[in-house]
Write a structure and sequence with these properties.
The protein has one domain: AhpD-like. 66% of the residues lie in helices and 0% in strands. The protein is built from six helices and no strands. Helix 2 packs antiparallel against helix 3 and helix 2 crosses helix 6. The chain is globular and about 50 Å long.
């Protein structure tokens, strides 16, 4: 699953470097140091990742409206997924994010949320 959402053969409008930056940003938002280290290394190793590295920091927004819309939506799905509405999807479309890329972004964020929760549970079991 991780390979499918982080480094798919056909990344569409979400290049691998951006995906790694979103993953690091999500790990930072949930304050998971181990995941942050994992995704930082992944971002650094990713071709073109350096161009997205600044956006791995939660709250950092680019001037580019499309990229900013993608990051805002990723933040929303990371912090408050239930808060996402049809208006948020329309905002992505208005920023020229295609429907396939909206789906790709949702898949990535869902995987990241699942991964963070799974790892937290495994750590709790390990320490029990």
């Amino acid at each position: 699953s991780g390979t499918a959402v982080l480094t798919p053969r056909e990344p569409g409008g979400l290049p691998h470097g951006l995906r790694a930056a979103i993953a690091l940003r999500a790990a930072a938002a949930v304050q998971d140091e181990e995941l942050m280290a994992h995704y930082r290394a992944r971002l650094e190793a990713c071709p073109g990742g350096v161009s997205f590295a600044t956006f791995a920091v939660p709250g950092t927004m680019p001037e580019d409206t499309r990229l900013a819309a993608i990051l805002r939506h990723a933040d929303l799905l990371t912090v408050e997924p239930r808060g996402a509405t049809r208006d948020d999807i329309e905002g992505l479309k208005a920023a020229d994010v295609t429907e396939p890329d909206i789906v790709r972004l949702a898949e990535l964020c869902a995987f990241l949320a699942y991964q963070a929760r799974l790892l937290m549970g495994l750590r709790l079991l390990r320490n029990a």
